[in-house]
What does this fold into?
Amino acid sequence: MSTRGISILGATGSIGRSTLRVLDQLDGSFRPVALTAHRSVDVLAELVDRYRPRLAVVADADAAMPADPSGGADWMQGREALIEAATHPDAEIVLNALVGAAGLASTIAALRAGKRVALANKESLVCAGPLVRRAEEEGGGELIPVDSEHSAIFQCLQGCAARGEVRKLVLTASGGPFREWSEARLSDVRRADALRHPTWEMGAKITIDSATLANKALEVIEAHHLFGMSYDNIETVVHPQSIIHSMVEFVDGSVLAQMGFPSMEIPILYALTYPDRMRYESRRFDPVAAGDLSFEPVRHAAFPIFGLGVEAGRAGGTAPAVFNAANEVAVAAFLEDRLDFPGIPAAVADALDRWEQTELGSLDDVWHADAWARRVTDHFVRSQALC
Ligand code: NAD
Ligand code: MG
It folds into this structure.
């Protein structure tokens, strides 16, 4: 296989670093041509020294750039520079591991430029699923999921001749650190408790989203857009061991599941090598060591943000963008100790209650809803602090 260029957006984060670990093992089959960071300039400089990309991007326009930009790369700064990385002529694949709605413009630009987008940034599809799919069609790009549940479904669907053969998608959820906590106890959650995920090590935002189950709502919406399934045919089940990454039920009653020990390297690898599989060394699966696999229903009353998110998905239009932006603001406030744990779903419910639905025709519609939700949620957080 010849060497394929890859742009890694969010190279300094959890998925970005896992991607670089995957590339380390693939011995030159893929070459990083662009690496980006938000404001961790020193970490980015180290990565540039090591991987020698053509382009290094610091997305935050206010971050101090290195005094002596090194590594033979062109250094650029600002949000527009992210688009340069997403559309770099030497990149065949763009791995989008940005966090939040900040990843949307890059997903669209890369698909319009005909790239394969290996998508970890689920918020792109949540905020603007129909626009992302349109960009893919018009630009000739290709969207491949990195999220482990969606990679599992994508893998189970290989060889499925028509979508009409699928009856149902079953997303699994670990249930997060508070799976068994009573509703009353959830008001005492501390930040450190919420940041301790039982089965996955991830960036702070998605770790909190996993604790509230907002992540699973985002993933239901992501699955709806990726696989063209109606919300009625997407089910979520709690599976605390995170061994079965998701399942597909077919019309003949057969169910396929994709499984393995939790590791993001496998879905990242598949998004890069699809439709092929490449030899890769990682912890080998051992069913005996995996132990018992159990399944439970979602506790809707304890984790109300899950239902709010799925309802926003069903409502469509700009409601999912409002859900996402309100959640981003509420999670940031929780991480800064400005909002308690039950305040996260409360803040999101408040924004969705106030939002007057609009159609999703263009990115401007998304940005309008996003900015509105951020303002309203910020106001909610301030009002809570005064109570
Ligand atoms: P992270 O916080 O560890 O890393 C985020 C990366 O994006 C960093 O490189 C950071 O510098 C950059 N970034 C952050 N904010 C930015 C902004 N406003 N503009 C530009 N760059 C910005 O996050 P992560 O855990 O790697 O998650 C990345 C994405 O992948 C998220 O959408 C998450 O939901 C998804 N995801 C993550 C995992 C996981 O295991 N970590 C699994 C599935 C999906
Ligand atoms: Mg996931």
